[in-house]
Amino acid sequence: MEATFKPGFLKGKIVLITGGATGICYGIALGFLKYGARVCIMSRKLPNIQAAIESLKKESGSSEIYGTTCDVRKLEDIEKAVDYFIEKVGKIDVLINGAAGNFLVPFESMSANAFKTVIEIDLQGTFLVTKVVHAKCLKGRGGSIINISSTLQVCGVALQTHAGAAKAAIDAITRHLAVELGSQGIRVNGIAPGAIDGTAGFEKLTPEGGLSISMKETIPLNRLGKKSDIAECAMFLASDAASYISGQTIIVDGGAVLTFPNFTLLSPQVRKLLNPSL
Ligand code: COA
């Protein structure tokens, strides 16, 4: 990743990444740190935050990483976390809404609370964190917001009605806020990752074993995504190089949505959930 951008090109930027302790968002945090940004992460679980801070420091060689616990469903938690970061680093220029919850569940057996839980974490969490960071940091100063979306809602993936509905609405938030906050110098964009190797989402949603080979073959760029692919898109969107881009959700999936069979239907785990008698 080092060679992609000029070293230090994000120096001076202060980034808050929700969900930054694990998965794709950990990769985003690492990218921003490597290129000179100061990074704040929050997650529900303290041990995850502590472990992430330690390994981000080691992997990036930077000590400009700060973290605290926060449940993005709770406004008071968010207010407290954002105040904590402002005290530590002074301001936030870039907000990356990546906190998400997910599980595979058939529509027929999904409880109202299961649906609500994912909507509250993914969608309402994006709304609430954006509201607090806007009021405390971006209003009057400008900045950049990046919402982490998905391609679930583009393909219509089985067992993902809750998550796909939340992500579709997040894409709508991206467009609405780009229009509403543009005159304040705030750009709002999204990133929709495809199958990213080494993440919980990938393990849940893709078939095991030999099938992953044909999966790669059906992706136009013939490989699975890497966390650094998403990090690089986020760094570009946050940088001055994207200063005239707003309201866009960029699909980063090697072209997969154009050609992908609905692989989740081939996953033994998904087939079992859809038809327990198998
Ligand atoms: N299948 C069906 N329903 C499920 C479920 C599953 N695998 N997991 C949770 N639910 C339902 C619960 O049964 C409950 O509904 P109910 O009250 O009607 O029974 C509701 O969802 C809330 O579950 P609960 O475990 O109390 O919520 P939580 O706030 O503690 O945690 C998650 C919610 C999404 C964070 C949790 O399921 C989780 O940790 N998931 C894995 C981690 C993850 O999502 N990583 C991101 C990958 S993209």
From TrEMBL:
The residues that cross the membrane are 14-35
The Gene Ontology terms for molecular function here are: 2,4-dienoyl-CoA reductase (NADPH) activity
**Keyword tags:** Membrane, NADP, Oxidoreductase, Transmembrane, Transmembrane helix
Name the Pfam families for this protein.
adh_short_C2
Under Enzyme Commission nomenclature, its number is 1.3.1.124
Biological process (GO) annotations held by this record are:
fatty acid catabolic process
Q: Which InterPro entries match?
A: DECR2-like (IPR045017), KR_dom (IPR057326), NAD(P)-bd_dom_sf (IPR036291), SDR_fam (IPR002347)
One GO CC annotation: peroxisome
Q: Which reaction does it catalyse?
A: a (2E,4E)-dienoyl-CoA + NADPH + H(+) = a 4,5-saturated-(3E)-enoyl-CoA + NADP(+); a (2E,4Z)-dienoyl-CoA + NADPH + H(+) = a 4,5-saturated-(3E)-enoyl-CoA + NADP(+)
Question: Protein name, please?
Answer: 2,4-dienoyl-CoA reductase [(3E)-enoyl-CoA-producing]
